[in-house]
Write a structure and sequence with these properties.
EC number: 2.4.1.-
Family: Belongs to the chondroitin N-acetylgalactosaminyltransferase family.
CATH topology of the largest domain: Spore Coat Polysaccharide Biosynthesis Protein SpsA, Chain A
Largest sheet: 6 strands, mixed
CATH superfamily of the largest domain: Spore Coat Polysaccharide Biosynthesis Protein SpsA, Chain A
Helix content: 25-40%
Number of strands: 28
Strand order of the largest sheet: 3-2-1-4-9-6
CATH class of the largest domain: Alpha Beta
Number of helices: 22
Keywords: Glycoprotein, Golgi apparatus, Membrane, Signal-anchor, Transferase, Transmembrane, Transmembrane helix
Membrane topology: Single-pass type II membrane protein
Protein name: Hexosyltransferase
Shape: globular
Radius of gyration: 38 Å
């Protein structure tokens, strides 16, 4: 074109020039407007300066600040409104009121429909014109309106909660006291809806809402802006989700979204497990870290979670006390080093006066700082053995050098690691980073019965920095830990009845043959019950042996002579004879029925192979609580002495002197035996009594135990009783008289009574013929 070539500007260059032009144009306009506004303010202030002097303006500001501070001081911290329904008043709402609801740092109210039902035992507010229909949009908005109109000037914070959430009120109080309530705040776990709802909730890209399940918190400023506009918000609903609409209303009238913070997922925890949430193991990071836990659909699990967290709180307070004691001990040690000999002389005189010139008390090892060198062995036999821990346990403490990690050890290690990680992340917010546990690579542990458990753990961690330059990378660290044992504390149970120490025990003894063993049992009974004249009744249910040499007549003669010797004492002995084939369940049911109809007997089921002391009587009376608790003691069962056990051996009629000496070579604790039990007659009938359809010996005890555990009104108490010993006797498993399940249990019991692993290993080494 006439020899000229026209080259156009690139688009990106033109955009840059247009932005610069717009910027300078806006700057000039801003300067002009600012100068006009300044002159206007100067002229207006000159006109009114005679009305408010600088001193008066300062006084007015001070008065406003003082009035605000007085109002804040007069306000309580928190009002919690729990949204519930009539059908949950007696279950979920009651569970909330009896657990965390009683510890709210302020006030708790339950909100439900406008009905005529009475709920005198709970602080329930019935909202006019509101029903229990779902979704509860109107109930949620009207609850906030009621809270504002009746308590708007009395509390700093207001919380909307469901009846299936658990709140750690102590931690919530600390959390809220660190936030300024005089500013508009809307606190909770921010949500934008599930993936299927994206674009369907009428939310902009920068809008959110606080999820209703884990709870949402309003400052009094936020509530004062939202509550007067509730009716307007109810007229403009876009979805059926009440928490979404509530968040929209807060955004519209308070001008703030729900807190955008990653931390809120941990503070206000919502489990995706639904109805199964918090029904399994509770030792998880979420349960320990969160302030609110949601959902808890069954009210029984609310009580369970509350008991667990109370236990955690008790352990934390014990540890805090231990740290104080260690600090005090360290201070005393520093004083001793500084003062030298004068300190020692002064302490000796104080010690002699306070103890009456007795021997000084030994130093409390708990006061010493944690150290793997705290224990110093005096000789080679005292050296503690370290066990190697990885995917299995390698140890010299058992016959099997490599074994699987059992549940108690796994749980203990997990507890220790969790506490370590909580300590590491205690200041994570201030430091802008968090460290997560990834995997235990390997470790060592050893047990000191006096001090506790020592650990050396190789941990694989993940370092996450979320402030400044974000980064994530793996970290490997060694942890040297000592888990100290506390001092043993004993206290009486508040459940024990006052008259339990004088309750008559009704022993029920099923018997078929075994005259000599029965005589040994009666000799023990004579020493423990007859000679001290205990309030005891022995009911012997005798069955024939179906053999030619049946000793039933000798047994009856022996019992008759025993009854004549004990006539006039508190001890009673009764014999009930049955003619059919032996059945332990039927025998126990017969013994139970021998009580007077109006007598709620304290029953104790016993076997003829058992020997016991007077302490067992005390434990039966203490641990068996009418209407509350059934006692299934764990007995010590002797091994077969033919394998060289260090026993003098009990004869058929006499008891060995060392029968109550307990160690691993003499026997084992019968953790899976439930045949010895003490229970009140009314509680036995509550679980359905004995299952008399079970014949022979075995399985009836497990059946009773399962039904007792399943009874919601009864607790099962189990504990080893060192004064309740099962004397060894050969076990015969008759295939013709036992079912397949009974035979399997019998064979397993017989195998378990041979010897300990260590003794069987020694026996094999001593008797094995090498080729």
């Amino acid at each position: 074109m006439n020899g000229f070539h026209v080259k156009s500007f690139p688009k990106r260059v033109w955009n840059r020039w247009s932005l610069l032009v717009k910027f300078f144009f806006g700057l000039i306009v801003g300067i002009i407007l600012a100068s006009q506004l300044q002159s206007l303010l100067i002229s207006s202030s000159a006109c009114v300066s005679y009305k408010l002097s600088p001193v008066h303006r300062k006084l007015k500001v001070n008065n406003i600040q003082e009035r605000t501070e007085v109002e804040a001081r007069n306000r309580q911290l928190l009002l919690v409104g729990v949204m519930t329904a009539d059908k949950y008043i007696g279950t979920r709402a009651k569970a909330v009121y009896e657990t965390w609801g009683s510890q709210v740092p302020g006030k708790l109210l339950f909100f439900t429909s406008d009905s005529q039902n009475t709920t005198d035992d709970l602080p329930v507010v019935r909202l006019k014109g509101v029903d229990d229909s779902y979704p509860p949009q109107k109930k949620s908005f009207m609850m906030l309106k009621y809270m504002y109109e009746n308590y708007g000037d009395k509390f700093e914070w207001f919380m909307r909660a469901d009846d299936d959430v658990f709140i750690k009120t102590e931690r919530l109080e600390i959390f809220l006291k660190n936030i300024n309530s005089s500013q508009p705040r809307f606190i909770g776990q921010a949500g934008k809806g599930i993936a299927q709802e994206f674009g369907l909730l009428s939310l902009e890209y920068d809008e959110n809402y606080c999820m209703g399940g884990p709870g949402m918190i309003f400052s009094h400023v936020t509530l004062s802006r939202v509550a007067p506009n509730v009716k307007d918000c109810l007229k403009n609903l876009y979805t059926t989700h009440e928490d979404v609409e509530l968040g929209r209303c807060v955004q519209r009238f308070a001008g703030i979204p729900c807190t955008w913070s990653y931390e809120m997922q941990n503070i206000f925890h919502h489990s995706s497990s639904g109805r199964t949430a918090f029904t399994g193991p509770l030792k998880s990071r979420e349960v320990h870290r969160a302030i609110t836990l949601h959902p808890i659909k069954e009210h029984a699990h609310m009580y369970r979670l509350n008991n667990f967290l109370q236990g955690v709180s008790i352990r934390e307070k014990i540890y805090d006390g231990l740290k104080i004691r260690r600090e005090m001990a360290n201070s005393v040690e520093q004083l001793r080093k500084r003062l030298g000999p004068s300190w020692e002389q002064q302490q000796d005189s104080i010690q002699l006066e306070s103890l009456g010139k007795k021997k000084k008390k030994s130093k409390n090892l708990l006061c010493l700082a944690p150290s793997l060198n705290k224990f110093l062995p005096e000789d080679e036999s005292d050296i503690l053995t370290w066990n190697f821990l990885a995917r299995s346990v390698d140890s010299t403490e058992t016959v099997n050098p490599r074994r699987a990690i059992d549940a108690p050890l796994r749980e203990g290690v997990e507890d220790v690691i969790r506490e370590v990680m909580e300590g590491i992340n205690a200041m994570s917010k201030e430091r802008g980073r968090v460290i997560d546990f990834k995997e235990l690579l390997y470790g060592y542990y050893r047990l000191n019965p006096r001090l506790g458990v020592d650990y050396i753990l190789d941990l694989l961690l993940v370092y996450k920095k979320y402030r400044g330059r974000k980064m994530i990378f793996p970290v490997r660290r060694h942890a040297y830990l000592q888990q100290a044992f506390g001092s043993l504390q004993l206290r009486p149970s508040p459940l024990v009845a006052r008259d339990s120490s004088t309750s008559r025990i009704h022993f029920i003894l099923p018997l078929s043959g075994r005259l000599a063993i029965f005589q040994r049992f009666m000799n023990n009974f004579q020493r423990v019950c007859v000679e001290p004249d205990e309030r005891v009744r022995l009911v012997i249910v005798l069955y024939p042996t179906m053999e030619t040499n049946d000793p039933s007549d000798e047994i009856k003669s022996f019992v008759g002579a025993f009854q004549r010797r004990t006539k006039g004492r508190q001890v009673e002995v009764e014999l009930i004879e049955r003619k059919e084939a032996f059945a332990r369940a039927a025998a126990l049911e017969t013994g139970k029925s021998s009580c007077q109809p109006d007598d709620d007997c304290l029953l104790a089921f016993i076997d003829v192979d058992m020997v016991f002391t007077e302490k067992t009587l005390d434990r039966i009376r203490s641990h068996t609580i009418r209407g509350r608790q059934v006692y299934f003691p764990i007995v010590f069962s002797q091994f077969d002495p033919s394998f060289g056990a260090p026993l003098t051996g009990s004869s058929d009629t006499e008891i060995a002197d060392d029968v109550f000496e307990i160690d691993d070579d003499r026997g084992y604790w019968r953790f899976y035996g439930f045949g010895i039990v003490s229970v009140y007659r009314s509680d036995l009938e509550r679980v359905g009594g004995m299952n008399t359809s079970i014949h022979g010996w075995g399985q009836e005890d497990v059946d009773l135990y399962d039904r007792t555990v399943a009874c919601p009104d009864l607790a099962v108490f189990r504990a080893p009783d060192p004064d309740l010993v099962h004397v060894f006797h050969p076990i015969a498993c008759d295939d013709s008289k036992l079912t397949e399940k009974q035979k399997k249990m019998c064979v397993g019991t017989r195998a378990g009574t041979y010897a300990s692993q260590q003794r069987l290993a020694r026996y094999w080494i001593e008797h094995h013929a090498y080729g």
